[in-house]
Write a structure and sequence with these properties.
This protein folds into 2 domains: 177 residues, Growth Hormone, Chain: A (Up-down Bundle); 203 residues, MFS general substrate transporter like domains (Growth Hormone, Chain: A, Up-down Bundle), CATH 1.20.1250. It contains 17 helices and no strands. The radius of gyration is 21 Å and the shape is globular. 52% of the residues are buried. By secondary structure, the chain is mostly helical. Helix 1 packs parallel to helix 6, helix 4 runs antiparallel to helix 7 and helix 9 crosses helix 14. The chain is 81% helix and 0% strand. Its main location: membrane. It is a multi-pass membrane protein. InterPro entries: MFS, MFS_dom, MFS_trans_sf, MFS_Vesicular_Transporter, Tet-R_TetA/multi-R_MdtG-like. GO terms for molecular function: transmembrane transporter activity. Keywords: Membrane, Transmembrane, Transmembrane helix, Transport.
Length: 409
């Protein structure tokens, strides 16, 4: 039986470079829009409800495209989805540069979300398919760090450039980065021949042994990221008089901590207990929520945000490596299906976090909401205990399963 396209002719080193640049560019454009988009005249005329729809269009398109992206990656390799994502993001930037009318911005935002779905699945799959097992977790962690760096750099760059040259200036920078990004994708990602088998989907990957705890880990990591985003800024402004610039710096610190720790956690993954690592991540998240919730001053809250940033790395980096192992267990192997499942679970966590923190804060107050969320984390401990003890043991098990099914590692 012919295996799924593995992008094996692509250099592992260049696969990492291409994937990291692709994810960085995608998140940089996402970050650029945060301060620029609400200020466009077309958005001011459309009103708050239309603005909410515009931001929701990104998530909706990402979720809809993600399963398709996984299917295409497993049938054709990463090159096609990466190039399609580049075209979609370039068109979105062009439409954002025009700046209106509203329906054009909605089209651009939808294109941007679709491009993100393609880039995330294809980029992470490219690393998983080309990098040897011993180094894979490290480079997946590095790729997740580039996501954080792009998201961190986008808003301040956009604000500075918009002040110098108007709302179109940040998108001109994005266009220049897209040209470099496109050259890398075209030059270094090789086409692959399609498999003779019909590849499995994300649902098939979900049915592989031990997949549910991994999916839960992804969802919890994303929820930790998102639960404080809608409620902490108001608390900081109301109780401590922190302005928008200060709030931005505090959230930037959280992102920076996660970005620095992601590759380090990935490098440690083959050498330490996987369960212990993720349990430390859950404990760090709970400690962060407690410090943020009861903190009497900004230094304590800052320490809580450092704990939350550490938790993100300790939860997300192992999950991004483990989901690739689950894809290898599918029949036939489904790396694209695995990372489309990763995207869907992560998106679910981004929805779950605010869905919990918003109503809890409204009914219980900020402090009790944070304490309740920390309590919810304690209830997830059985999930972490069901993870493999060692990352190497999990990969060895995946190889044994494939061998029993008549496949080759």
């Amino acid at each position: 039986m012919q295996p799924t396209p593995s992008d094996a002719t692509t250099s592992p080193r260049m696969a990492v470079v291409v994937a990291c640049v692709a994810l960085f560019t995608d998140m940089l454009v996402y970050g650029i829009l945060i301060p620029v988009l609400p200020l466009l005249p077309a958005m001011a005329e459309a009103g708050p409800s239309a603005t909410g729809l515009l931001f929701a269009a990104y998530a909706a398109a990402l979720v809809m495209v993600t399963p398709i992206a996984g299917r295409v990656v497993d049938k054709r390799g990463s090159r096609g989805p990466l190039l399609a994502a580049l075209v979609g993001l370039a068109c979105a930037c062009l439409l954002f540069t025009i700046g209106g009318p509203y329906w054009l911005l909605l089209t651009a935002r939808t294109l941007q979300g679709a491009a993100a779905g393609l880039s995330w699945v294809a980029g992470l799959s490219l690393i998983a398919a080309t990098v040897p097992l011993q180094r894979r977790a490290t480079y997946l962690g590095l790729a997740m760090s580039m996501v954080s760096v792009g998201a961190l750099a986008g808003p301040p760059l956009a604000g500075w450039l918009a002040g110098l040259g108007g709302h179109s200036a940040p998108f001109l920078l994005a266009a220049a980065l897209l040209m470099i990004d496109g050259a890398l994708r075209l030059a270094f990602v090789r086409p692959t021949s399609p498999p003779s088998d019909d590849p499995p989907t994300a649902l098939d990957v979900l049915r592989t042994p031990g997949c549910w705890p991994v999916v839960a880990l992804i969802l919890i990591g994303a929820a930790v990221t998102s639960c404080i985003e809608p409620v902490l800024p108001m608390q900081l402004a109301r109780e401590f008089g922190v302005g928008s610039a200060g709030i931005g710096m505090l959230f930037a610190l959280l992102t920076l901590v996660a970005a620095c720790l992601n590759p380090l956690v990935g490098a440690c993954l083959p050498r330490v207990s996987l369960r212990a690592l993720t349990l430390v991540g859950a404990a760090s998240a709970a400690a962060g929520l407690l410090l943020v919730g009861v903190g009497p001053n900004l230094p304590v809250i800052t320490a809580g945000l450092v704990c939350l940033g550490s938790a993100i790395a300790l939860l997300v980096a192992p999950a991004s490596a483990l989901i690739g192992v689950q894809g290898a267990m599918a029949t036939p192997p489904a790396i694209g299906g695995a990372y489309s499942l990763n995207n869907l679970a992560y998106a679910g966590g981004l929805v779950l976090g605010p869905a919990l923190s918003g109503p809890l804060t409204e009914h219980l107050g900020f402090t009790h909401a944070c304490l309740t969320l920390a309590g919810f984390l304690a209830l997830t401990v059985p999930t972490f205990i069901r993870l493999p003890r060692k990352y190497a043991a999990a990969t060895a098990e995946s190889i044994q399963i494939r061998d029993r099914r008549g496949q080759h590692p």
